[in-house]
Design a protein that fits this description.
Layout: H1 18-24, H2 31-38, H3 45-57
Length: 71
C-alpha cells in the first residue's frame, strides 16, 4: 500500500520506505545497485518499484537513460 490508511499502518506503507531510498540517492547509482543496497527495507521487488514510481511522480527522482548504450 502506498499511503497509510485505516487498515495500513505508516510502517507498512511505501511512504515509510522513502527515506532509505533518498539517502542512497545522494549520489548517482544504478537501479540494480540501489535495490541491492536497500532490499532489506522492502518485502519484494514490486514494493521497491512502487516506491521508485511514487518518488518519480512526486518529482523527487528522475530517470537518466541518456548515458546507456542502445537508447
Amino acid at each position: 500500500m502506498i499511503v497509510p490508511s485505516k487498515f495500513t499502518s505508516f510502517d507498512n506503507s511505501v511512504i515509510s520506505r522513502f527515506p532509505c531510498l533518498l539517502e542512497a540517492l545522494t549520489r548517482e547509482i544504478s537501479v540494480y545497485d540501489l535495490y541491492k543496497e536497500t532490499e532489506s527495507n522492502f518485502e519484494d521487488i514490486g514494493e521497491f518499484i512502487l516506491a521508485l514510481d511514487s518518488l518519480f511522480v512526486l518529482g523527487r527522482i528522475e530517470l537518466d537513460n541518456l548515458n546507456r548504450p542502445g537508447f
